[in-house]
Design a protein that fits this description.
The chain is α/β, with parallel strands linked by helices. Among the domains are: 58 residues, no CATH class; 86 residues, Immunoglobulin-like, CATH 2.60.40.10. The strands form six sheets. It has an eight-stranded parallel beta sheet with strand order 20-17-14-13-12-25-24-21. A hairpin with a 5-residue loop joins strand 1 and strand 2. Helix 6 packs antiparallel against helix 7, helix 8 packs across helix 10 and helix 13 runs parallel beside helix 14.
Length: 714
C-alpha cells in the first residue's frame, strides 16, 4: 500500500517534530504517509502546516525556537553523564548556571570554552553560552537556574527541570538471583462470596495469599486499576480509564474501612443491606459495573459521613498535601461530574478550565463532595498497601505487579485536568497487524511530546509514582509507545495514521528512576511491530520484555524455548487472546469471523491457525513434554512446561487457564460488539466461578509445577 509522497518541505517539518512520513508495515511493505495525515498530526502538535506558506513559516519557527529560550524546558541525563546545556542570553551579557538539588542544596555548573556566532532573533542579538553538567550529580529531580547581569532572553525560561536517572534499573533480589513464577489475572473477574459484584482489593489479597501459600507464587499481575467515571455508565475497559494517576474506588472493600465501626445503627444496617444487594450480582454472567458502583458509592458516602478522627485524620491531611493540586483537580472533576453529568464537554464553557474562576467557585461551594473523592483515593492507597503487605507476608517475593494503560478516555478527567499536555484532533491506536488486520483505534488522546517537556514531565512522573506505590512492579502496556505512538487523525481509519516519536531517553529514564526508588521491576509489553533497537534499548536500561507463546516463531516453526529472552516475562497467553483452552478450540477465529474482523476467508484463517497449533504440539512431543493424542488439559500443561525451559526471569500462568475458562475477556478492535472486560471468571462449562471455588481448582498445582519444570505427579 502506497500513497503520493508529501512535499519535501512538509517532510522536513514533520521530521523536526518527530512525525514519521514513511514506515514498514507488518508484512514488510513500505508505506508512504499521506500529506493529509501529516498535516493533521502537525496540527494536533500545535503546528500550522495547512499550506506551503505555513510550512515555510513553521520551519523558521522550529529552527530558532531554542534561541528564543534562556534554558531548554527539561534536561534528562543518566547518572555519570556530563551533557552540555546551552543557555541563550543577550549578546554581551554574562550568565551563570547552577543546579538546585532536590534536597535544596546547590551546585555550580562550569562554563565550556565554546564560541558560537550570535544570531539576530526577533530583532535582538542573542548569544549561546555552553555549560557542562558535573558527572557526580545524584539521582533525582533537580532544577537548573540561570542568572546574569542583564535581562534574560526570556524571563519565563530561566529555570528548567533537571532529571538524573539510573544507567540501568537494578533487578529486585528475586530476579537478580533467579526466576519468579506467578499468576496473572483480571482482578474484576475474581469475585468472592463477599464481593460487591466485582473483584476488589480484599479479593486480591486473598488470591495472592492463596497463590503464595499453596503454590509458592512470587507475584500476581493484574489489570490496570485506574479510575473510571464516578457516575454511570461506567466504562468497562480498564485500558480506557478517565485518569491513569488515580485508582478506581470500585476496588475498595467497604468492610475493610475502619470508620465503618463508627456508623450509627441505622446507617450500619443500610450498609449491610447495600452489601446484600450487591452480592446478588456475583452470580451474574456479566460484570455489571453500572449496578455495582451506585450500591458501593452509597455505602462509601455513609462511611465518609461518619468522619475521620485522631491519627487517621492527620494521615488523610498528609495524603492530601502530598498529592497536591493533581488530587484536588481530579476530585473536583468527579464532583462536577456528579453535579453536571458527563461528558464534561457538555458543561458550560466556564467550567472547561480547571484553573478558572467558575471551577474555583464550584470547588469552594462543594468542598464536602471534593473531599469525599479525595478520601476515596486515600482509602485506596491504604488498601493497596495492605494488599501488598499481605502478599509479601504470605511469601511472595514481588507481590502485586500493577499494569499501566496506554492512555486515557478522550473526555475523561485527565483530558479535562491536563489541558494541552494531551493532543487534540487525534487518537492513539495501532496500524494493521496479523491479529488485527484492520488496525486498531483505542480512542485515546496521546501525550504531546513538546508539552511534556515544558511541564518537566511532572504529569508522567506523578502517574508512574501512583502505580509503583505499594507494588512489586509495573507492566507498561504497549511500552513501545514510550518510543513512538500511532496517531490517527480524527475521522480517519487506523490505517490512515502515522507514528509520532517521543523522547524515550526521558520517558524510560523517569520510569527507571521511579521504579528504582520503589524497589520495583518494570515489564514492557513489547508485542506487535517493534524495531529491534527498541528492544536493545529496553535491555540496556534493565526493562523486561514480554513474550507470548503463540506469537513466538522462527520462520515457520515455534521459537525454541532456549531462544527466548532472559530479561522477559513469558506466558502462554494474554488478555487479548482467549484462554489457552479457548485458543486451542479456535475461539479467537470464531469471534473475529462473527464480528467481521477477518480480511481473508475464514477457512483459510482456521487452516493456518490449526497448522500453527499442530506445529506447537509436535514440538512439545519432540521434547517429551506431550504424548501424541493428548487431551486439552495435557496440551495446556505441556505448553507451560515449554515455558519452563526458557531462560526468562519471570513466568506467569493465567488464572483463566487454571480454572479451564474458554472465553476471551477482550477482543481488540471492538467495543460493544463483544462484551469486552465484562466476562466473569468461569469454568469449562461457562458457569461463573467464585474465588472460593478457584482455590479448589485441580489444575492449579499441575500448571504451577509445569512452569517450574517440576516432575509430574505419578
Amino acid at each position: 500500500m502506497t500513497s503520493v509522497a508529501p512535499p519535501p518541505r512538509l517532510v522536513e517539518l514533520a521530521h523536526a517534530y518527530g512525525v514519521a512520513t514513511e514506515y514498514w508495515d507488518w508484512v514488510g511493505q513500505h508505506v508512504t504517509v499521506s500529506a493529509e495525515a501529516i498535516r493533521a498530526v502537525l496540527t494536533a502538535l500545535g503546528v500550522e502546516a495547512g499550506d506551503d506558506d505555513a510550512v515555510e513559516a513553521a520551519l523558521v519557527d522550529v529552527e530558532v525556537a531554542p534561541w528564543r529560550r534562556t534554558l531548554p524546558a527539561t534536561v534528562v541525563a543518566r547518572e555519570g553523564w556530563t551533557p552540555w546545556v546551552h543557555v541563550h542570553v543577550p549578546a554581551g551579557a554574562s550568565v551563570t548556571l547552577e543546579v538546585v538539588l532536590e534536597d535544596g542544596s546547590t551546585r555550580s555548573v562550569p562554563q565550556v570554552e565554546r564560541w558560537v556566532e550570535p544570531r539576530d532573533i526577533d530583532g535582538r542579538s542573542v548569544r549561546e553560552a555552553t555549560f557542562e553538567l558535573p558527572g557526580d550529580l545524584p539521582l533525582g529531580w533537580h532544577r537548573l537556574v540561570a542568572s546574569g547581569d542583564r535581562a534574560p532572553v526570556d524571563p519565563t525560561t530561566t529555570e528548567a527541570t533537571l532529571i538524573i536517572t539510573p544507567q540501568r534499573l537494578a533487578l529486585p533480589p528475586a530476579l537478580a538471583e533467579g526466576r519468579a513464577v506467578g499468576l496473572q489475572t483480571q482482578l474484576y473477574q475474581v469475585r468472592s462470596e463477599e464481593s460487591w459484584g466485582i473483584g476488589d482489593l480484599r479479593d486480591l489479597a486473598d488470591l495472592a495469599t492463596w497463590a503464595a501459600a499453596a503454590h509458592d507464587a512470587d507475584f500476581v499481575l493484574i489489570n490496570p486499576l485506574h479510575a473510571a467515571e464516578p457516575v454511570t455508565p461506567v466504562e468497562p475497559s480498564p485500558y480506557l480509564p478517565t485518569t491513569r494517576r488515580f485508582v478506581s474506588p470500585l476496588y475498595l472493600r467497604v468492610e475493610d474501612i475502619p470508620e465503618l465501626a463508627r456508623l450509627e445503627h441505622a446507617a450500619h444496617r443500610r450498609v449491610l443491606g447495600l452489601a446484600a444487594t450487591a452480592r446478588r450480582l456475583n452470580s451474574a454472567d456479566r460484570i455489571d459495573r453500572n449496578a455495582a458502583w451506585p450500591l458501593k458509592q452509597e455505602a462509601l458516602r455513609l462511611v465518609f459521613d461518619a468522619g475521620v478522627t485522631g491519627q487517621r485524620e492527620t494521615s488523610f491531611a498528609q495524603f492530601c498535601a502530598r498529592e497536591g493540586d493533581g488530587l484536588t483537580t481530579f476530585a473536583t472533576w468527579c464532583a462536577l461530574a456528579e453535579a453536571k453529568g458527563l461528558p464534561w464537554t457538555d458543561w458550560p464553557a466556564e467550567l472547561h478550565d480547571p484553573a478558572g474562576a467558575a471551577v474555583t467557585a464550584f470547588r469552594d461551594a462543594h468542598a464536602d463532595e471534593v473531599d469525599f473523592h479525595r478520601w476515596l483515593q486515600w482509602l485506596l492507597e491504604q488498601q493497596l498497601a495492605a494488599t501488598q503487605h499481605e502478599a509479601k507476608a504470605a511469601g511472595m517475593s514481588l507481590g502485586v505487579v500493577q499494569d499501566l494503560a496506554v492512555g486515557v478516555h478522550p473526555v475523561g478527567a485527565d483530558a479535562w485536568g491536563l489541558g494541552d499536555a494531551l493532543a487534540r484532533g487525534v487518537t492513539v491506536g495501532a496500524p494493521p497487524d496479523q491479529f488485527n488486520q484492520l488496525g486498531q483505534d483505542w480512542s485515546q488522546p496521546p501525550w504531546r511530546p513538546d508539552r511534556l517537556a515544558e511541564l518537566g514531565y511532572a504529569p508522567f512522573r506523578d502517574m508512574v509514582r501512583t502505580v509503583l506505590r505499594d507494588s512489586g512492579g509495573i507492566r507498561v502496556d504497549h511500552v513501545i509507545g514510550l518510543f513512538r505512538l500511532w496517531w490517527i487523525p480524527s475521522g480517519g481509519t487506523p490505517a490512515g495514521g502515522t507514528y509520532v516519536h517521543y523522547d524515550h531517553e526521558a520517558l524510560i529514564g523517569i520510569l527507571v528512576l521511579e521504579a528504582q526508588r520503589a524497589g520495583a521491576v518494570v515489564i514492557g509489553e513489547d508485542l506487535g511491530v517493534v524495531a529491534p533497537e527498541n528492544r536493545d534499548y529496553m535491555l540496556e536500561r534493565g526493562l523486561l520484555g514480554t513474550s507470548i507463546l503463540w506469537f513466538e516463531w522462527e520462520g515457520d516453526r515455534p521459537k525454541p524455548p532456549e531462544h527466548y529472552r532472559d530479561l522477559c516475562l513469558s506466558t502462554v497467553t494474554t488478555h487479548d487472546l482467549p484462554p489457552s483452552a479457548g485458543y486451542l478450540s479456535l475461539a479467537h477465529v470464531d469471534i473475529r469471523e462473527s464480528l467481521g474482523l477477518l480480511t481473508r476467508p475464514v477457512e483459510e484463517e482456521r487452516a493456518q491457525e490449526l497448522a500453527s497449533i499442530a506445529k506447537l504440539k509436535d514440538a512439545c512431543v519432540e521434547r517429551g513434554l506431550l504424548a501424541p493424542g493428548a487431551d486439552t488439559e495435557e496440551v495446556i500443561e505441556a505448553l507451560h512446561r515449554w515455558m519452563a525451559q526458557t531462560p526468562s526471569r519471570m513466568l506467569a500462568v493465567s488464572l483463566a487457564d487454571v480454572v479451564g475458562d474458554l472465553r476471551a475477556v477482550n477482543q481488540p478492535g471492538t467495543n460493544d460488539e463483544y462484551p469486552n472486560w465484562r466476562v466473569p471468571l468461569a469454568g469449562p462449562d461457562g458457569q461463573p466461578l467464585s474465588l472460593e471455588e478457584v482455590k479448589g481448582a485441580e489444575q492449579a498445582g499441575p500448571l504451577f509445577a509445569a512452569l517450574r519444570g517440576e516432575p509430574r505427579d505419578t
